[in-house]
Amino acid sequence: MVVYAGQGDARRSMALLWRHGGEPAQRTAPGPKPELSVDLVVNTAVAVADEEGMAALSMRAVGERLGRSAMSLYTYVASKNELLDLMYDHAFAELADAVEGETDRPWRAATTAWAEHLWRFSLRHPWTLQVSHARPVLGPHEYRIFEALALVLHRAGLGPSDVRNAYGSLFNLVRGLVRTSAEARQAQAATGMAEDDWWYARSSQLGQVAPDFDTRFPTLAALSRGGAFTNDDEGEPYLEQEAWETLRFGLEALLDGIERRLTPATGRERH
What tens-digit pLDDT sequence spans the chain (271 residues)? Predict the structure, then answer.
């Protein structure tokens, strides 16, 4: 399920994301002031998505948690599309706070920490992985995450366009691999079968259905004998461990490449 952000009214959504002009005007009808706010509606929607997934998100579901009707929420958030934009950026405030606290470390350690924070954040909020990055929300907390990494890499001596490309490479490396881990966590609930049980039930059949496997795939067979596909952590599902190890490998390789492109901190690119 892929969800595209930015489908609400652009002017209103951007104003709410950046709180330009404050929250929308509240009702002026007689009686007690409403107890709701944009932030409360958004926080509640994030809780729904965290606990039940994106498929469960609706204005009605949010209203029920607040003890209100779906219609009562439209005073604060004009549509579900607008709500999604606000939820996505609001959730990223947590990540922005974390990565901003790493910027004083040496560039390589700070960049590694940035990637690890993004990994853990995505597992805590897997619904964010369903929001397509083809059309980013362009909210303040997204920019804070970009700014934190850009500061670290620019200060280390990476040129302007390389900073942009490094951000995209790092973000998509983590996002792609953590999606696999998030789906592995959700698979048991969706299928009723634990991940490791699923893998072993099928891989154990290879010897019977493909007795010539080692001959047909000699390199993979050799890697298997060398422990390439062994889960050394019995407390962690195989696929999640594999994705984490792949991230660490890819991150180290990517950082090695970035290091080769660093110049003295003059902002100039080395060609």
Answer: 889 989 989 999 999 999 876 655 444 344 444 589 999 999 999 999 999 999 999 999 999 999 999 999 999 999 999 999 999 999 999 999 999 999 999 999 999 999 999 999 999 999 999 999 898 899 999 999 999 999 999 999 999 999 999 999 999 999 999 998 898 888 888 898 887 788 888 888 988 999 999 999 999 999 988 988 776 665 555 567 788 889 999 999 999 999 999 986 544 444 3
| Cβ atoms within 10 Å, residue 72 | 16
Architecture of domain 10-86: Orthogonal Bundle (1.10)
* 213 within 8 A of 207, measured Cβ to Cβ: yes
Residue with tokens 């404050």: 22
Q: How far apart are CA 245 and CA 96, in angstroms?
A: 24
Q: What is the CATH code for 89-198+224-260?
A: 1.10.357.10
